[in-house]
Design a protein that fits this description.
Helicase, Ruva Protein, domain 3, single chain, binds S-adenosylmethionine, globular, 2 domains, Rossmann fold
């Protein structure tokens, strides 16, 4: 029988041989994820024996990783801003960069934490942004929309997984088409990659994230134009529109919102210093 430490070394070595960039980190993600062990457990319980059926699961997962499948897709779930999210073929894998948008919105509404805020998350995917906000705003209600029914089904499952079902609903909608009501915060991480760039993305992204979640049209700004044009009709007075953007889109997205009657009230970069999140308010 193999010990946990030996298993990690075996997986690390196979991933290194396949050219995976950080093989030890990914070995920990796979082995820890499959055995439900945190980073500390992986270190302190290195002499534990791995059960034969777990060895089989780990080797199978390693084969999939060597064949190019991203580690969190193999596990079928990923942590995001302190909550756990299941993934499906219709959902983008939520990225740590998007946590910047969540943090910025939470900072801006911190004084309204105990109000009945209404949140609309356009293109909700796994529900990541809306569910992370609800987890931190105990009285808020959220609606997640998406064009992909499969994404909405996953978002609903994720709400249940995190005990948020009573405050989260879904609506299948092409942006605002099927949306009704008024909201205090409209959030979105829309598809923002230029169509001509999509075929050049890393194979892992191209083959495992849905195209609908990536392609932002000829200049990458299609969704921002629709959101900026229509958001005003769905915002309460002093409501906020918060969007994630590509690292080089800050000025162009600001211009799109300004020409639709909004002004920027906050913006934030990610840890790498890339512009990532912007928040707007309608000019009175
Ligand atoms: C970049 S992903 C973001 C997913 C999730 N909000 C997140 O941050 O992880 C964009 C999402 O927008 C959805 N989407 C694309 N076009 C849409 C449209 N016309 N109307 C509504 N949702 C759309 C996609 O299905 C996808 O779930």
């Amino acid at each position: 029988m193999t010990t946990l430490k030996e298993m990690l070394a075996l997986v690390r070595s196979r991933l290194a041989g396949a050219g995976v960039e950080d093989p030890m980190a990914e070995a920990r993600i796979l082995v820890g994820g499959l055995l439900d062990l945190g980073r500390t457990d992986l270190i302190t319980r290195g002499e534990d024996r791995v059960a034969p059926e777990d060895e089989v699961r780990i080797f199978h997962a390693t084969d999939r990783r060597v064949a190019g499948e991203p580690p969190y897709r193999i596990l079928g779930r990923r942590g995001f801003h302190g909550i756990e999210l299941r993934l499906s073929r219709d959902t983008l894998e939520p990225r740590p960069d998007t946590e910047v948008l969540v943090d910025l919105v939470l900072d801006l509404v911190s004084e309204r934490r105990n109000e009945l805020l209404e949140i609309l998350d356009l293109g909700t995917g796994t529900g990541a942004i809306c569910l992370a906000l609800l987890a931190n705003l105990p009285l808020a209600q959220g609606t997640g929309t998406d064009l992909a029914q499969g994404a909405l089904d996953t978002a609903k499952d994720n709400a249940a997984l995190n005990g948020l079902s009573d405050r989260f609903g879904t609506t299948r909608s092409n942006w605002f088409e099927a949306v009704s009501g008024l909201y205090d915060v409209i959030v979105s991480n829309p598809p923002y990659i230029r169509s001509d760039i999509v075929p050049t993305l890393d194979r892992e992204v191209r083959e495992h994230d849905p195209l609908l979640a990536l392609d932002g049209g000829t200049d990458g700004l299609d969704a921002y134009r629709v959101i900026a044009r229509d958001a005003g009709r769905f915002l309460n007075p002093s409501g906020l529109v918060a969007v994630e953007t590509g690292y080089d889109q800050k000025a162009t997205v600001r211009a799109v919102f300004e020409s639709a009657g909004f002004q920027e009230v906050a913006a934030r970069a990610d840890l790498a210093g890339h512009d990532r999140a912007q928040v707007f308010r309608a000019v009175c």
